[in-house]
C-alpha cells in the first residue's frame, strides 16, 4: 500500500502545482504532472519509471527505492508494479503481454500464452487511475465495466472476452435474428448474406466453413467451396469465380419472337437484322443479307457495305468489317488538354491521373519514368535512389538499393537491448544507425519510438475499395453496400441481377443489357430528339421529354404502353424522386425548377409546386439524391456553376464554381457520394464530393463531346451526340474504356436501370398529411408544398386560398420576388425564401426602382443599364413587357413613383433634378417643382388625399444633408416636414396618408412623422438598413450585410427576423387592397383634363405638357415661344430644332431632348417626326369626340366655330389661325410662326415661302421615315422576340443543330446519291 499512498500524494501534489501555477506556468491535464522547472508536463506513468523524462530530472526524484511485498520491482531501476489486483495499478501489468518495465522483466519467465492485443497507441489509456476517476476512451473505444481499460466497440459481444472482467461479453443476446448467422465460437451475429461470400466476418472464420451447405441467395459454390454466388452471376459473361466455373457449361438462351439471336447468343430486335449497322457484337446480324440495305447516312463501307457517318471515319474504332474506315488515316497533331499530360514521344496525351499509377499508358513508358519522388509506405525504408524496402532488407549484407544506400554507414551498429525496449514495435539497423521500426500498416510517431495504426481507408489511393472501406489494426478490409456481393479479389463489388443502360437515341429509347448485351426499344411517340429521361422502377415507367412537345411523357418498361404525365409545360431536364414519389423538371425559359406528384390523378396544376425560381439564370440539367433529400443542377448562364439545394429548395449553395467550362449533364453517385458532370468546353467529365471538395477532372480522348452522364458502381457512362456513341469507362481512372452503343442517329440522355438503385430508403412523406404535395428536404425529411396561388396554413400541412392578399415585392437586378404576408406564420428565422413567386423581368439587367398597380396588374421598373423606365404586365405568373415608357441618355432615374389612379409617373433624374410627372403613354411631361431641389432620392404618393412626399438630397454638403418635403400632387403647398435626415430612402405613406415613413441608411433608423411635420418617432434597427415598407400596421425592412435579411415589427411587438437569403435585393415595397383603395377627382375620365390630371387635397389640377399652355381649366394649346421647326427643352431655357430631339446626342443642358418614348431614339443621320405633338398645327385642338378620356359634356364649353369657320379665320385671324369661342368670347389661336390678337405678327416674314415649302418637304420626309421606322421596329421586335428568352429556349434546341442532323428515312432526298467510302 505504500506505493498507492505515494502515488496518491504525487497526484495531489501535481494537482496543487497546476492550480497554483496560474496563468504564468504551463497547465497540465489531470493525467500528467508539471516538471519542477515548469517547462513541460509528463504523464504520471512516466514518474519513477527509471528513465528521465523531465529535462531537470524531477520526474525521477523522491522515488521509493524498494517495492512493497505485493509489488514487483523492475530490474532496470525504481519502477514498481502490482503483483495482485489493487485500485492503484491493475494486476495484469505483470505477464500481460506488454512490456511495462523498460527492461521487459515484467514479462520475463511468463509461460502462458499471451493474447495478441491492439498495438494502436489509442487503444490503451495513457494513465490508469482508480474508479473515482472515470476512464476516458478514444473515439471508437468503449470502457470495460471495471473502468480499467478501453476496447474497440466492435469487440463487444463478438464471442471473445476482451475485458479482463468479462464485461464486454455480458448482457449480450444469446440468439440471433432470423436473417442472421451465429458464429460458432460465441454470440456474435452477422448477416446471412455475409456467409460464404469469400470474406471471413466471424473471428473464428466459421462463416466461411462448410460452405457446401445450401445458403439462401446462393446457387453456386466455387473456389474450393469458399465462395458462393447468386444465379444471376452464372453465365453472365463475367468471371466471378477464380476457377471460372461460373462461366463454364453455359447454354445459350433463346430469344423472343420479336428478337434476332446473334451467333454469340446475344439478342437484338429483329428489325435490326440487315439494317446496315451491326448491332450484334459479332456482327452476325449483318451477315447473309439478301440485299444491300439503304443507308440514311448516304455513306457506306465500300466492300462490307455497312452504313457509316463521317464522324466514325478514323475514330480509332473499326466500323467496317473490311477495316477500310480506319485505313490511311492522317496523323492529327497532338494537342493536350488542360488536365492531360503529353508523353515524351509527343504522340499521345493521357490524363494527369494516369501518371505514376504503376501502369504504362504512354507508348514509350515515360508516364512511369518521369515521376516525382516516390512516397514509401510508412513502415518502409526509402533508398536514396527512391526505391522502397522492407526493414529486413536493410543492412542485411546485400545491396538492394540502386545506389547502395541500404548498406554501409552505421550498419555495423546493432540495436542495443535498450533500443529494443524503447521502441514500441522493435528496432532495426540502418546505415544511419539503429532506428525504431513499425509493422506494415503502422507508422512511426513523431517521438520516433511509438507506432500508430495507419488508416488505409483515408490514405489509400481512391478505388482500392470500390464501395466501403473498413480500417482494421495494421490493415483494412473492403465491404459492399446492401444488394452487392464482394468479388473474388476482395475489393470490388457486383450487384445481383443485370443492370441496364437506358438511352435516348434521337427519337428512340433503347434498353441495353450491360451483361447480356441485349438491345430492345421502348415505345415512343417523339417526333424530335428525346433530350432527357429518367425512370420509376416502382411504377415501371420511363419518363421523357422531347423538343417538340410541351409535355412530360412516359413509356412503360413492359414495352407496351405510352402516355403523358402532364401537358402544357416546358421541360428541359427531368428527374424522378423515387422516394417521395414526385417528378422534378427544369423550365429553362422561365428559369425555375418545378415538381409534380407521380400519381396519375394529380397531373394538373394543383399537383405541382414551384421548388426554385429565384436567381436561376440558365439551369441546364438536374439530378436528385432522394436518399439525402438533395438535388443538384448545372448553371450555364452568366456565371457557370453547379449548385445544390434540398429537394424543397432550402439550403441552397454553389458547390462547384471552379474548373468549369460549360457544364452540361449532371448525375449523382449514391455509393461514392460524389456528383459528376459533363463539360463540353473542357472536353471532360468532372466530379466532386457532395460538398464540392476534391474536384477531379477526367479528360481522355473519348470525352471530346460529352452530353449526358450516368454513374453506376465502378463505371461511368456518357453519350457523345457528335460521334453518335454511348461509352463507358472506370469512374476514377477512365480506363477499361468500352463502346456500348454506336448507331447512325444521335444519342442524348443516359441512365442506368436496376431495382436496387431505387430501394432501401423509407419515404418520410408517408407520415405527413399534406393536403396537396409533399417533397423531401435535406435529411431526408418531409415538407408540405402548395401549388401556385395557394399558401401553406399555420398547421404546415394544409394549402388554402389567400385570406390576406397583402404582399411584398423584392426587386433584384433582373427579377422581382412576390411574397404574401399570409405566409408570415412560418417566420422562424428561415434560412431561405418563404413561399414566394420569383418573376424574371424581360430584358432588364440592372433594375433599381419599382412600383406596382394592383388594378392594372402592371409592374413599373427602372433599368440603370439602359437608363429607361418600362412597364410589364403580370399574368399567369409571368411578366410580359409592355414597352418602354421613357428612355434617357447619359442620365439615370433617381426616384420614381406611380399614381395608381391615373398611372401618371412621378420621377426625377441626375441631369434633370426636378420633380416632374409623365403620363403613362409617355406623351405628356410637366415640371411640378424645380426650385431648391438638389437631387430627389425617393418619392411617395397618396392619390386619394392628393399628397406626395419626396427627399431632397445634398450629398456634397456636410452634416444634415437631406430634407423630407411634402406637397400636393400638383406641386403646390410645398413644405419641409423633416430636416434632420442624412440619407433617407424608401419613402412610404400610411394608408390614410397622414404619416410618412422612411429608412435612413446612414443613421440605421426608421423614422416617421405626421404629414404636418409633428409627431416624429424613430426605430433603431440593425446595421445594413437598406429599405422599408409598410403594410397596414406591420413595418417591414431589409438589412444587407453578408446576407439579405427581412425583418418585421407589428404594433408594440419586438422586431423579428422573418428570413435571410443570399440574393441581392435593391428595393422593397408592400402592396394590398387597402393601400390602393379610394378615389379622387381624377378617377373618372381623367378629371376631364386633356393632358395630365393631378390630384390635390382640395380636388384636382389639370396640367399641360411642358410645351403647352392651358386654354382653360382642362384643355391645352401649344406654347408659341420657340421659332418654327423647333421645340423647347424641358427646362425652358433654350429651343432646339425638332431634328435634335431623340437623335442620340444630348443638346439641352438638362439632356431632356433625349427623354424619348419607347425606342424612338435615332442616329444622327435620320430625321424623325416629334414623338409628341408639342408644335402642332392649329388643328391640334381635337374635337370633343376625339379627346381621350373626355365625356361629351365638359365643365368648360369649348368648341370650334364650324358654320363659317373659314370666314372667321380669314377675317378675325388674318388667315393665320382659327377661331375658338371661350366664355362666349371668340378669340384666335395662331398657327405656328404667327402671334398677336389677330395673328397679324409674322415672326420671320422673309422666310414665309421657304417655311411653307420646307414644311411640305418635311412632311414628305417624315412620312417616308416613319414608314422606315415602322419596318425597323417590326424587325427589331422580331429580333427581341428571339433575344434573351429565345436564347434560353435555344439552350436545348441548339444541341441538335450543333451536331449534324441525321435524316430519317422519310426525309432523305431522293436526288442525293449514296457515297461509298473511298
Automatic annotation (TrEMBL):
Main location: membrane
Keyword Iron: no
LDL-receptor class B repeat ranges, renumbered to this chain: 629-672, 673-715
Topological type in the membrane: Single-pass membrane protein
Transmembrane segments: 1251-1271
Superkingdom assignment: Eukaryota
Keyword Disulfide bond tagged: yes
Domain EGF-like intervals: 453-494, 1204-1240
GO molecular function, one term: hormone binding
CDD domains: EGF_CA, LDLa
Coiled-coil ranges from the UniProt annotation: none
Ranges of Basic and acidic residues composition bias in the record: 1309-1318
GO cellular component: apical plasma membrane; receptor complex
GO biological processes: receptor-mediated endocytosis
Cystine connections: 48-63, 95-110, 157-172, 196-211, 235-250, 255-267, 262-280, 274-289, 295-307, 314-329, 356-371, 376-388, 383-401, 1230-1239
Location of the protein in the cell: Membrane
SMART domains found in the cross-reference section: EGF, EGF_CA, LDLa, LY
Keywords: Disulfide bond, EGF-like domain, Endocytosis, Glycoprotein, Membrane, Receptor, Repeat, Signal, Transmembrane, Transmembrane helix
Signal peptide from the UniProt entry: 1-21
Region (Disordered): 1279-1318
A Pfam family recorded for this sequence: EGF_CA
Name under which the protein is recorded: Very low-density lipoprotein receptor
Organism: Oreochromis niloticus
Gene: lrp13
